[in-house]
Amino acid sequence: MAVVEPFRLTVRDQALEADIQAGLSAVEESLLAGTKSDVPFLTEAAQHLVLAGGKRFRPLLTLLASRFGDPQAPGVVPAAVVVELTHLATLYHDDVMDEADVRRGVPSANANWDNSIAVLTGDFLFARASRILSDLGDEAVTVQADAFERLVTGQMQETVGPREGQDPIDHYLEVLAGKSGSLIAVACHFGAMLAGAPEQVVSVLTQYGERIGIAFQLADDILDIASESRESGKTPGTDLREGVDTLPILHLRAMARESGSAGDRELLARIDGDLSDDGLLDEVLVSLRGHAALDRARKDTVDHAERARETLAPLPEGPAKDALSLLCDAVVHRAG
Q: Which residues have a Cβ under 8 Å from the Cβ of 263 and sit 6 or more positions away?
């Protein structure tokens, strides 16, 4: 049994471990090559987050999905690079929208330089991803375009908020399916499709990707509150300070409406107030860490991870299926 970095995926098959490690190394080399420009400053900005590291969750899924066909097919590694470059581009743009100061434990591009540099760098990464994608065929271009539309729609839904009469938690899960699940689904779709897997297998893996993608983001929501370190790649409490209602806060709001608890209402008033003071933010985080709302959010994360695991049932047995199942456990472990 071995552990594949950087996501710390436990793998019980040595041949699979070696192949995944080799694939991730090839992805890393291609990411550096794909972010080089004739303009040195643009290279510096584009490689800022590449060099900061990251879990490479999406490339890992592409490589695992390819095991259901020919994992050595020439399009597999480029597809993994396309998905990761697209993800990186969205991070540059997200940090501008969120006015974030830290990303992956380093200053965000907008904090390091300015918003214009961050936006333009994100655009550059989209362009490079599109260039690589163009060599993967028309079907791959369509898959990516559809996913990107969903990603933008999810971001718009988050910005606009729930429709009249829509449950805020249902709305939030819709947002996550678009913003996070869609691109992770593409990672699995590309891996299986470009490896020549049967259409039914491609469909199953795409569904799995979306479901584990939602669970992965829910785990991040919990880490933002429960972690006392920078395990999530950003300062704990960042979402709170930015006024983003993630799942634990939405559960807290629902519980306050249901019970009318004075303690819950007081905690919400503090959350909705000014959290710029570090001491006050820490107090709110401590209160949330002991609250039942966080437990509800953890249960939801487990439920979504289990749905992802159940999706794998039709796939043939083997080390790749086992690894995808173990990834569900890894996601839940992140949420505590």
A: none
Note the pLDDT tens digit of each residue in 44-79.
Answer: 888 877 787 778 999 999 999 999 999 999 999 999
Cβ 4 vs Cβ 17: under 8 Å: yes
CA distance 256 to 262: 8
Residue 254 CB partners (closer than 8 Å, separation 6+): 168, 169
Calculate the CA dihedral of residues 105, 111, 117, 118 and round it to 10 degrees: 50
Residue linked to tokens 């930015």: 242
Name the token pair of 80: 């993994």
Q: Going along the chain, which residue ranges are E strands?
A: 2-4, 9-11, 102-103, 106-107
Please list the helix, strand and coil fractions of the chain in percent, rounded to the nearest 5, in that order: 75, 5, 25
CA distance 56 to 273: 36
* Dist CA 214 CA 220 (whole Å): 10
Q: Which helix (H) or strand (E) holds 209?
A: helix 199-226
Which residues lie across from 106 on neighbouring strands?
Answer: 103
Residue 167, classed as helix, strand or coil, is: coil
**DSSP letter assigned to residue 166:** -
- Which residues is 102 bridged to in the sheet? 107
Q: How many CB atoms are located within 10 Å of the residue 259 CB?
A: 11
Contact (CB, 8 A) for 183 and 213: yes
Q: Which residue has the tokens 């000014």?
A: 274
Q: What is the pLDDT of residues 197-234, one digit of tens each?
A: 999 999 999 999 999 999 999 999 999 899 875 555 56
| Rounded CA separation 86/22 (Å) | 22
Q: What residues contact 249, with CB distance under 8 A and at least 6 apart? A: 240, 271, 293
Cβ-based neighbour number of residue 229 at 10 Å: 8
